[in-house]
Amino acid sequence: MILEHKNAIIYGAGGSVPAAIAKSLAAAGARVFLTGRNLNNVQKVVDDIIGSGGSAEAAQVDALDEKAVNDYIKTVVDKAGRVDISFDAIGLDVVQNMPLVDISVEDFVRPVTIAMRTQFLTATAAARVMIKQGSGVILSLTATPGGIGYPLTAGFAPACAAMESFSRNLASELGIYGIRVVNIRSGGSPDSKVFKEAIESNPEAMAHVLKSMKDDTMLKELPLMADIANVAVFLASDLAGKITGVTIDVTSGTTAGLNYRTGPVIG
User: Fold this and answer.
1) With b meaning 16 or more CB within 10 Å and e meaning fewer, what string describes 121-150?
2) What is the pLDDT of residue 255?
3) Under a CB-based contact definition with an 8 Å cutoff, are residues 77 and 129 in contact?
4) What is the pLDDT of residues 79-108, one digit of tens each?
5) What is the DSSP letter of 255?
6) Angle at 21 (CA atoms; ends 147, 170), nearest 5 degrees
7) Dihedral-angle region of residue 4 (phi above 0 means left; psi in -120 to 50 means alpha; beta otherwise)
């Protein structure tokens, strides 16, 4: 139970990957406070955790609303006494799989705006609490396009890059208070909801896509949600006590993403 007596807040906990992380944090002993816009989805995760013997609570919080975030973290502190882990993985409303020359400026900019607003609000709210404590861990999650050129990812790629930059800079300011800030970069988990839905709707095309994605990694495999969750548990624990200001790559060694994504885009 390496996270015993730790309190964790997770924003966007109704999503499949953050839900998996929430369950793993709870299984490691953390008391988890799960939030999202859709309380029903979050409550299902809470029920699963409690059913497995963990400690969890659900709340409806808009992680893009400054007052809502500040009010909620105060509620958690009043109830639990401290915040040890903060993780924000809300959806970014991404439009992709089209060339940059064809996408609208609104669709391109929107995920960057959402990412920066929510990460800033939730991370700085947690930081203000953690500074008083003299400890804490702030985690975030990006994907392969945050580190390499990856075609047809539209505004998602710069959103990931911006999140990784913000994580580094925040770490450089908070380290003197004993606070660690770490980003996790995933390669896309085939057992996550978005992939499962795509596979169900178009199995033949997705079989080709998944094979190509695997072929474009060094390990010839894609990380599952459990792989991402295991890394999150480690980073949140004292075992990672000297890790901060970096992005931990859990992409199975994804390379360039070019051998199956590119093609003529201008006639």
Assistant:
1) bbbbbbbebbeeeeebbbbbbbbbbbbeeb
2) 76
3) yes
4) 999 999 999 999 999 998 899 999 999 999
5) -
6) 50
7) beta
* 2-42 pLDDT tens trace: 999 999 999 999 999 999 999 999 999 999 999 999 999 99
Domains of the chain: 7-250 (3.40.50.720)
Burial (0-12, 13-18, 19+ Cβ within 10 Å), 89: buried
CA distance 187 to 113: 22
Q: Which residue has the tokens 């992409």?
A: 251
pTM exceeds cut of 0.70: yes
Amino acid 266: pLDDT: 46
Whole-angstrom distance, CA of residue 104 vs CA of residue 162: 20
pLDDT, residue 256, reads 66
| 147 vs 138 pLDDT, higher one | 138
Q: Which residues of 201-235 are buried (b: 16+ CB within 10 A; e: fewer)?
A: eeeeebeebbeebbebbeeeebbbbebbbbbbbbb
* Token code pair at residue 203: 């199995």
> Is the pLDDT score of 50 beyond 60?
yes
3-state helix, strand, coil in the chain (%, to 5): 50, 15, 35
The rounded radius of gyration (Å) of the Cα atoms in the chain is 18
* Six-digit token string for 167: 């994580």
